[in-house]
């Protein structure tokens, strides 16, 4: 089982902030279930976007995306989004966050 951590930026956790805004209990349950499976090594429907960033696709409601990266045996949750048209902007933000860490 892999340890899942959440990325912190300026004292905030972007993943948690977005997750708390979700009003659909079914979507919250599916996201939580997929993260549990991810921790067990079963990513399911995912895509590697570049050398560092992965996208976990969750088809419920408007379609959710969890962006994450790996650091050793840990999975770091970066961002949770549900807006496909802004995907390229979100990925650029994630890349800048990861570049700040190095």
Automatic annotation (TrEMBL):
Protein name stated in the entry: Addiction module killer protein
Species this chain originates from: Thiomicrospira aerophila AL3
InterPro entries on file: TypeIITA-like_toxin_pred
Matches recorded under PANTHER family: SSL7039 PROTEIN
């Amino acid at each position: 089982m892999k340890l899942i951590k959440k990325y912190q930026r300026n004292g905030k956790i972007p993943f948690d902030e977005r997750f708390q805004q979700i009003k659909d209990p079914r979507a919250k349950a599916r996201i939580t279930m997929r993260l549990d499976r991810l921790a067990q090594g079963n990513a399911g429907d995912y895509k590697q976007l570049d050398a560092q960033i992965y996208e976990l696709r969750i088809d419920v409601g408007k379609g959710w995306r969890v962006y994450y990266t790996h650091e050793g045996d840990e999975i770091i949750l970066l961002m949770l989004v549900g807006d496909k048209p802004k995907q390229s902007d979100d990925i650029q933000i994630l890349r800048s966050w990861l570049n700040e860490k190095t």
